[in-house]
């Protein structure tokens, strides 16, 4: 049977938190799932398909893997990106030191940016390889999801069993209590009946003996 053709990958880009993010995926839905987005970022206008040669080349080398760079920068997308420079500086330096450095330090010249490399052309062989790699990455993520779901299901089953056992023990203890309480109530009723009979017997005997006493005194 002929093999099912690999899905053509496209490169999608968005900005989330401190990072710009990019990924090579076969659809917007797949990109949103990889980003872990809870809403449609494309409809909101904060995600798009990009044909930037450098971004496309980077994502096609690691299809299905979310690549990042500091938000607002124009650097290269990598799997492990540093925090934005301004944020890193703010976290590393105390406020007073930063204030002094602003007054005393002289503006430094930024080194000239390296000339951009000519864009790499993605040929059919690379595209097929990238699509296969994406499917492999997708299967890995799916396997991890199934593993996590199985672990959660196992934990739920353990918890449900524990609850069922505790509830069964409570129900059994309640039945034993009800049976004992019913037996005690039956014994109490029998004692009340015996006490009443004894009282009636004593009343009759007392009256008879009291009458005998009265007659003896006459």
Instruction: Give the N-to-C terminal Cα separation.
Output: 130 Å
Question: What form results from the Cα inertia axes?
Answer: rod-shaped
**Structural classification:** alpha+beta
The proportion of strand residues reads 5-15%
Please tally the β strands and state the result: 4
Unreliable runs, pLDDT <50, ≥5 residues?
A: 1-5, 94-116
Rg over CA atoms, rounded to whole Å, is 42 Å
Order of helices and strands: EEHEHEHHH
Q: Major sheet, described briefly? A: 4 strands, antiparallel
| Assembly annotation | single chain
Helicity range: 55-70%
In DSSP terms (H or I, runs of 4 or more residues), the helix count works out at 5
Mean pLDDT: 80
- Give, in spatial order, the strands making up the sheet with the most strands: 3-1-2-4
């Amino acid at each position: 049977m002929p093999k099912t053709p690999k899905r053509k990958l496209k490169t999608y880009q968005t900005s989330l938190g401190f990072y710009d993010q990019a990924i090579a995926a076969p659809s917007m839905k797949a990109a949103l799932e990889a980003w872990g987005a809870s809403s449609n970022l494309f409809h909101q206008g904060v995600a798009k398909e990009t044909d930037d040669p450098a971004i496309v080349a980077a994502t096609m080398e690691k299809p299905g893997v979310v690549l990042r760079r500091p938000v607002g920068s124009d650097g290269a997308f990598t799997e492990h990106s540093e925090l934005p420079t301004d944020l890193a500086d703010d976290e590393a330096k105390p406020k007073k030191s930063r204030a002094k450095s602003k007054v005393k330090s002289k503006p430094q010249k930024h080194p000239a940016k390296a000339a951009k490399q000519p864009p790499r052309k993605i040929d059919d062989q690379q595209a097929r390889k990238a699509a296969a790699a994406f499917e492999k990455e997708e299967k890995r993520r799916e396997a991890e999801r199934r593993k996590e779901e199985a672990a959660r299901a196992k934990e739920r089953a353990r918890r449900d069993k524990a609850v069922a056992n505790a509830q069964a023990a409570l129900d059994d203890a309640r039945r034993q209590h009800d049976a004992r309480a019913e037996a005690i109530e039956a014994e109490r009723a029998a004692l009340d009946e015996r006490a009443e009979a004894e009282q009636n017997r004593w009343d009759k005997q007392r009256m008879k003996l009291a009458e005998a006493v009265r007659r003896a005194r006459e």
